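Our preliminary data section would be incomplete without showing what the modeling component actually yields. Below, a chain of 266 amino acids is followed by its predicted structure, encoded as tokens that our downstream tools consume directly.
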Amino acid sequence: MSFALGSFLHTLPLTALAVVVLLAITFAAALIYHKHAVIDVAWGLGFALIAIVTLVASAGHGDPARRWLITALTVLWGVRLAVHIGWRGRRHGEDPRYDKLLSRAKGNRDAYALRSVYLVQGVAMWFVSLPVQVTQFSAGGLGIVAWVGAAIWLVGFFFEAVGDLQLVRFKARPANKGVVMTEGLWRYTRHPNYFGDACVWWGLFLIAADAWPGALTVLSPLIMTYFLARGTGKRVLEKHMRDRPGFADYVERTSGFFPLPPRKTT
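Predicted structure:
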């Protein structure tokens, strides 16, 4: 199997530039709407954009089946996530998480947001997407590892999409205002969407790892999983919810990340 190293290296600045342009547009929108939470919409779109830019730039290199497969899966995941977050937050003001973060600013809040939110997420987006970028330039047909990766991606996409839909429907009922969601997939894990997100990126990594040098990008899914399970995902959200009635009991009986049968409580 061969890898078009030179062409890959020439593409890296292009994907970085694509991220910069997207986040510049997002920052401008945030200033207009006074809402830096719009970057959450750009998160999924950024990965989709990187996949498309790399697909175009890798024309004539790599395996066509692998290139189109990983691009399609990345775009489908990224666009669905962006649409969901955009629709969910359309009638809300600034996210309390960003309000708390920006309250630390000693000077201009927008300048602080540019450094501590946009720059950080831009670097993370570009680095986490490396399996998608690398595999576009890898030759060789799809093997068993790639198909296992596609299956894991499908499991992850199911958990993330269905979990989000179940939560939206639950919150739509007036009687559930302030109530902890414990139905559907949320009965088996407190974060089916985060678990699904992690599976999506491990699946994309395995598609990349099916051909050299995709296996070298293992830090990308590891970092994404850390963000979701230990970093800015699960930990921050649960800190925000810990005073909600019934949440402590929910934590006691429900797995924090990996789906498991509910534990019996006394």
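The chain has a mean pLDDT of 94. Residues 5-253 form one domain. Preliminary results of this kind motivate Aim 1 of the renewal.
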